[in-house]
Specification:
single chain; two-stranded antiparallel sheet; two-stranded antiparallel ribbon
């Protein structure tokens, strides 16, 4: 399970982030942007930064607190957007699930 780093906890608990998140939610009327493009109406579960946040750039409000650089997504679409970044990781360490719900490692046969 993922454990947030201390700088991430501080940022995502801040009043400034809560206000930015609210602005994104209101702009999109609480609906996932990616789902709406497909004609589906799914509630926002996460507000996604279009620029990956790091400890170095989280203090730059133009990167971390600009609602125009964020998008509201449902959990499935948020995970899908992050999947693209995971391709750089060691694939055999990623666990996936097959149609029957059994764990499968991509690129590795058990």
């Amino acid at each position: 399970m993922y454990t947030p780093k201390p700088w991430q906890r501080r940022f995502y608990r801040s009043k400034a982030w809560q206000e930015c998140r609210k602005a994104v939610w209101e702009r999109q009327h609480g609906l996932c942007a990616d789902c709406m493009e497909r004609g589906e109406f799914t509630p926002i579960a996460e507000v996604h930064h279009l620029t990956f946040l790091t400890e170095q750039n989280v203090g730059d409000p133009k990167v971390s607190l600009d609602p125009d650089r964020c998008v509201g997504l449902c959990r499935e679409c948020h995970n899908r957007r992050h999947e693209k970044g995971y391709k750089k990781l060691d694939q055999p360490t990623r666990v996936w699930f097959d149609e029957q719900g059994r764990p499968v490692r991509k690129g590795v046969e058990w």
